[in-house]
From TrEMBL, chain A:
Single GO cellular component term: cytoplasm
Protein family: Belongs to the ORC4 family.
Name the UniProt record assigns to this protein: Origin recognition complex subunit 4
Keywords of this entry: ATP-binding, DNA replication, DNA-binding, Nucleotide-binding, Nucleus
Example of a GO MF term: DNA replication origin binding
Biological-process GO terms, alphabetical: DNA replication initiation
TrEMBL record, chain B:
Domain Origin recognition complex subunit 5 C-terminal: 314-434
Ranges where the Orc1-like AAA ATPase domain occurs: 21-167
Organism: Apteryx owenii (Little spotted kiwi)
Keyword Secreted listed: no
Family assignment from sequence similarity: Belongs to the ORC5 family.
Keywords: ATP-binding, DNA replication, Nucleotide-binding, Nucleus
Name of this chain's protein: Origin recognition complex subunit 5
Highest taxon of source: Eukaryota
Subunit annotation: Component of ORC, a complex composed of at least 6 subunits: ORC1, ORC2, ORC3, ORC4, ORC5 and ORC6. ORC is regulated in a cell-cycle dependent manner. It is sequentially assembled at the exit from anaphase of mitosis and disassembled as cells enter S phase.
GO cellular component, one term: nuclear origin of replication recognition complex
Length: 403, 448
C-alpha cells in the first residue's frame, strides 16, 4: 500500500503536494494564465530550467488550479505539443488539428501555407456560436527542438498570433537550454514577449533535507493511521541521522535536482516488504552506492586480462605521444614490451589473437577511429583507475599463473 | 531455501526462476524488487549494461516469461530503422492481448503516431492495471536512428501517461548514450561479468550424460585455464568446450587412461587447445573442419588457417616484386640512394628526422610509392637483368588482385599508378627465405 502511493509519487510524476521553493514563479505563471483565460489577453512565456527542476510539474500544478475555476474549465482549450514527438511542422499542425478536435472541419482542404492553415483553425474555433473565441493555450515541451524546424514556421506563426490576432492565445514553452533566445530567429524573437520564468533549483541543503522528509512521508489520508504514524516517525528519525545527512550532502553536491533524489528514494523503497516494513539507513546507503556506481570501472573490471593489457598499452601510448592517433601495430609493439618486462606468467599471445581482442575492445571502449583507420582512445578519463589496474594486472597475473 | 522472495509472486514460480538463472540471483532479485507488484509503478526507464554474454537478454526474457508479465521484446539490430521498430512494438502489443485474434498490419511512421496508437492499444486491453514492459535489446542501435527516438523512449511513461516501463539492454555504458542536451536519466543496472567460479559452474551444468560431472568439471577447469586470460565470453567458451570435449575423452575411450588420470588427460589435450586458440577461436577454420581434423588425427603442423601464408605460391618474379614493394613501402625515399646504389654518400640527419625518430616506420603502416620506384628497386635487387616486359607488369596487376598490393589513388591518374604493400614482415621473410637475400634485408628493413 505504502509502495503504491510512494512509487506513484516518485515514478509517475503525479503532481502531489505543493512544489517547493518556487512560489514566486508559480504565482507569476498563474497570473499570466488567468489573464489569458479570464480577460482574453494574448501572451507568451518561456519556462527555463535545467533538467529535473520541475518545469512540467509547475505547469501542471498551475493548470490544475486553473481548472478548479468553472469558467475556465469550460472555456479553455489546451494544445500540448512536444518537441520529441512532433519532429516537423507538418506533424505539429496535424497534431494541433487533432487536439482541437477540428479534423472534420478541416476535412480534405489543402492550404497554401502554414499561416493559412492555422488561421483557418482559429477561425473555426470562433464559429461555435460565440462572438469571441475561446482562449487557446499552446504548451510546447522541449521547446529547443522546435527551433530546429525549417524556418521555425510553427514558432513564428504561434508567436505572431499571440501578438496580433483576436483569439486570446497563450504560448508557453518549456526548455532546458539557457541560451534558447539566441536560437530563435530574429523575426520570431521580436514577436516573443521575452517573458522568462526561471526555475533554478534554488534551495539550500537545509531545505533539501526538508524536501527529503516531505517526499518520504505518507499523506494524512493514509488508511492505516498507526502505521502512517510509525512510518513518518521513522522518516523524521532518518532525516536527523548523521550518516544519512552525509549521504544526502553528497548527492546534493552532485546534482541538486529532485529527479535524482526520487531515483534514490525509489531504490530504497523497493526494499520495503512486509518483513521489512520501514526504510533503514542502510537501505539508503545501499541505494546510494548503487546509484553512484562508476560504470566505466565496472566495464573495465569485466575485461579479460589480455584486454586490460591492451588498454594499458594504449594508455601508455597516449601518454607518451600526447594524444596522437595510433594503430594496432603500435599497440602490439607496446604490448610486447610490456610482456617482456613482466615476463613471469603470461605467455606471449599470437598476433591474430591480440588483434581479435583489440577489435572487441574498440567496440566496447569507444575507441575513436581517426580518419586514416588509426585509433585514438578516450581512456584519458580513466587515468586514475589505471594505477589501480596495473596493480590489478600483477595480481591477476599471479592468480592465473598457469605454467 | 529459495533466495528470491517476493510477496506478489508464488513461491513455486520463483523457485523455478531461480533454477533457470544460475549465478544471477542478485540481479534477478534486484529486478524483482524494482518491478514490485504487477500494478505498481516502477522506473520509467531502466538501462541494463554488461559485457557480451553476461546474461542480460537471457535473464530478462526468462524473468518476464516465467512471471508472465506483459511485455514486448524487440531487438534493435533486427529492426534497425525507427519505423520498423515502432511497427514491431505495436504488432507485438496486439499479440499481447487476448482479444485480437490476428495481428493486423499497422502503419506507423513517426513517434507521434506511435504514442497515439500505443495509448489506444493499451486502453483497449486488459493491460490497464499491469505494468507493460518494452524491452529493447542492443539498444546502442537507437543512437543511430533519429535523434528523438532515444529520449522519447526514456520518457514513454510520461508521454503516454500509461503504466509502461522501457528496459534498454546494451554492452555500452550509459555515458556514451546520453544526448548532448540531456534527457530523462534511466535507472542503470550493471550485470557483472561472470567470475571464473561462475563460468565453471555454468559450463559444467550441461555435461553430456555419459560422463560424470566431476570428469566434465575437470575438463572445464583445464579449458578455462587456457582460454580465460584471453576471452571471458560465455558463448565462445561453450562453443570451444563442445568442440574439444571428444578429443579430451579420447584417452578414456581408447582405454589408455581412466577418468581420474588428470595428468595424462592434460598432456593429451594441452597442445590441442593451444592449436584451437590459433584457429577455431579466431574463426580461421570452421568448426566442421576442426572436427574433421580431430577425427583424422592429423599432424599438428598441418593445421593451416586462413591467414597462413604457406599456401600462397607466387611465380619467381612476383616474389621479387613483392619484396621490392615492401622495401618501397617501408623505407623512406631518401634512403633508396644509400641502399641501392653502389657508390653512395652519407646521409645527413636533418632536424626533421631527429624529431620523428621515435616512430619507427614499421609502426605507421605502409606508404604509397609510384610504379617507377618499384621497378627501380626491382632492377637493383634482382641479380640478372630484368626486361620490362608486359609479363612483369601483368604480375603487378595480379598481385593487386590477390590483395598483396593495393592501388592507391584514382584509376585515371595521369602521373602513373601508385601502390602500397599490404603484407607484413613475416610474410616477406617467409618469401625471402627462398632467396639468399637475408643479409640484404637486415640492412634495409630497419628504418631510421
Amino acid at each position: 500500500m505504502v509502495q503504491r502511493i510512494l512509487r506513484e509519487r516518485f515514478c509517475h510524476h503525479h503532481a502531489t503536494g505543493k512544489p517547493f521553493g518556487i512560489e514566486h514563479q508559480y504565482r507569476h505563471l498563474l497570473e499570466l494564465l488567468k489573464r489569458t483565460t479570464v480577460h482574453g489577453e494574448s501572451n507568451s512565456a518561456l519556462i527555463i530550467g535545467p533538467r529535473g527542476s520541475g518545469k512540467t510539474m509547475l505547469l501542471n500544478h498551475v493548470l490544475k488550479e486553473l481548472m478548479e475555476i468553472k469558467q475556465i474549465r469550460e472555456n479553455l482549450l489546451e494544445v500540448h505539443l512536444n518537441g520529441l514527438l512532433q519532429t516537423n511542422d507538418k506533424v505539429a499542425l496535424k497534431e494541433i488539428t487533432r487536439q482541437l478536435h477540428l479534423e472534420n472541419v478541416v476535412g480534405d482542404k489543402v492550404f497554401g501555407s502554414f499561416a493559412e492553415n492555422l488561421a483557418f483553425l482559429l477561425e473555426a474555433l470562433r464559429k461555435g456560436d460565440r462572438t469571441s473565441s475561446c482562449p487557446v493555450l499552446f504548451i510546447l515541451d522541449e521547446f529547443d527542438l522546435f527551433v530546429h524546424h525549417k524556418n521555425q514556421t510553427l514558432l513564428y506563426n504561434l508567436f505572431d498570433i499571440s501578438q496580433s490576432a483576436q483569439t486570446p492565445v497563450t504560448v508557453i514553452g518549456l526548455t532546458c537550454r539557457q541560451d534558447i533566445l539566441e536560437l530563435l530567429e530574429k523575426r520570431v524573437k521580436s514577436r516573443f514577449s521575452h517573458r522568462q520564468i526561471y526555475l533554478m533549483n534554488s534551495f539550500d541543503f537545509k531545505q533539501y533535507i526538508k524536501i527529503f522528509k516531505e517526499q518520504l512521508s505518507l499523506p494524512a489520508e493514509f488508511l492505516d493511521e498507526s502505521f502512517a504514524q510509525k512510518w513518518n516517525n521513522n522518516v523524521q528519525h532518518l532525516s536527523e541521522d548523521k550518516t544519512v545527512q552525509d549521504m544526502l550532502q553528497n548527492l546534493f553536491h552532485y546534482s541538486k535536482d529532485l529527479r535524482s533524489l526520487h531515483l534514490l528514494l525509489m531504490l530504497a523503497l523497493s526494499n520495503v516488504t512486509v518483513h521489512h516494513p520501514l526504510i533503514t539507513a542502510s537501505d539508503l546507503h545501499e541505494a546510494s552506492k548503487q546509484y553512484r556506481m562508476d560504470s566505466k570501472a565496472n566495464i573495465v573490471h569485466g575485461l579479460s586480462v589480455l584486454e586490460i593489457c591492451l588498454i594499458i598499452a594504449m594508455k601508455h601510448l597516449n601518454d607518451v605521444y600526447e594524444g596522437e592517433p595510433f594503430n594496432f601495430q603500435m599497440v602490439y609493439n607496446e604490448f610486447q614490451k610490456f610482456m617482456q618486462r613482466k615476463a613471469h606468467c603470461m605467455y606471449n599471445f599470437e598476433k591474430p589473437v591480440v588483434m581479435k581482442c583489440c577489435a572487441a575492445l574498440c567496440w566496447i571502449v569507444a575507441v575513436h577511429r581517426h580518419k586514416q583507420l588509426t585509433c585514438q582512445t578516450t581512456c584519458l578519463a580513466w587515468s586514475r583507475k589505471f594505477r589501480k589496474r596495473t596493480g590489478l594486472v600483477r595480481h591477476l597475473n599471479t592468480y592465473y599463473n598457469w605454467s | 531455501m529459495p533466495n528470491l522472495e517476493h510477496p506478489a509472486y508464488p513461491a513455486a514460480t520463483l523457485l523455478r526462476l531461480e533454477s533457470l538463472v544460475p549465478c544471477r540471483e542478485s540481479q534477478v532479485s534486484m529486478l524483482l524488487s524494482i518491478f514490485g507488484e504487477r500494478q505498481q509503478f516502477t522506473f520509467p526507464s531502466i538501462f541494463i549494461y554488461g559485457h557480451t554474454s553476461s546474461g542480460k537478454t537471457y535473464v530478462m526474457q526468462t524473468l518476464l516469461n516465467t512471471l508472465q508479465l506483459p511485455h514486448v521484446f524487440v531487438n534493435c539490430v533486427e529492426y534497425f530503422t525507427s519505423r520498423l521498430l515502432l511497427e514491431e512494438i505495436l504488432i507485438q502489443l496486439q499479440n499481447c492481448s487476448f482479444e485480437t485474434k490476428h495481428a493486423s498490419h499497422v502503419l506507423c511512421d513517426t513517434f507521434n503516431d506511435f504514442v497515439r496508437m500505443f495509448k489506444q492499444a493499451v486502453t483497449s486491453q486488459d493491460l490497464q492495471d499491469q505494468t507493460l514492459y518494452i524491452v529493447l535489446d542492443r539498444a546502442e542501435q537507437l543512437r543511430e536512428m533519429e535523434a528523438n527516438i532515444l529520449p522519447a523512449f526514456l520518457r514513454l511513461q510520461e508521454l503516454t501517461d500509461r503504466n509502461v516501463t522501457v528496459v534498454l539492454l546494451s554492452e555500452i555504458v550509459w555515458e556514451l548514450f546520453r544526448p548532448s542536451t540531456g534527457c530523462f536519466e534511466p535507472f542503470t543496472l550493471y550485470f557483472p561479468d561472470y567470475s571464473i567460479g561462475h563460468l565453471q559452474k555454468i559450463l559444467s551444468h550441461n555435461h553430456p550424460p555419459e560422463y560424470s560431472a566431476d570428469f566434465y568439471a575437470a575438463y572445464i577447469n583445464i579449458l578455462l585455464g587456457v582460454f580465460y586470460m584471453v576471452c571471458r565470453d560465455l558463448k565462445e567458451l561453450q562453443h570451444l568446450a563442445a568442440l574439444n570435449f571428444s578429443k579430451y575423452c579420447e584417452p578414456v575411450v581408447r582405454g589408455e587412461a581412466n577418468e581420474r588420470d588428470t595428468r595424462k588427460l592434460w598432456k593429451n589435450i594441452e597442445p590441442h587447445l593451444k592449436k584451437a586458440m590459433q584457429t577455431v577461436y579466431l574463426r580461421e577454420i570452421s568448426s566442421s573442419q576442426w572436427e574433421r581434423l580431430q577425427r583424422d588425427d592429423g599432424e599438428p603442423g598441418q593445421l593451416k588457417g586462413l591467414s597462413a601464408h604457406a599456401h600462397v605460391e607466387l611465380p619467381y618474379y612476383s616474389k621479387f616484386l613483392l619484396i621490392a614493394a615492401y622495401l618501397a613501402s617501408y623505407n623512406p625515399v631518401r634512403t633508396d640512394k644509400r641502399f641501392f646504389l653502389k657508390h653512395h654518400g652519407k646521409i645527413k640527419k636533418t632536424n626533421f628526422m631527429k624529431k620523428h625518430e621515435k616512430t619507427s616506420n614499421h609502426l605507421l603502416g605502409p606508404k604509397p610509392f609510384p610504379l617507377d620506384r618499384l621497378l627501380a628497386i626491382l632492377y637493383s635487387i634482382v641479380d640478372n637483368r630484368v626486361a620490362p616486359t608486359a609479363n612483369i607488369f601483368s604480375q603487378i596487376t595480379s598481385l593487386v588482385t590477390l590483395q598483396l598490393l593495393s592501388l592507391v589513388g584514382h584509376n585515371d591518374q595521369l602521373d602513373g599508378p601508385r601502390y602500397k604493400c599490404t603484407v607484413s614482415l613475416d610474410f616477406i621473410r617467409a618469401i625471402a627465405r627462398f632467396f639468399s637475400l637475408l643479409h640484404l634485408k637486415e640492412g634495409q628493413s630497419i628504418g631510421p
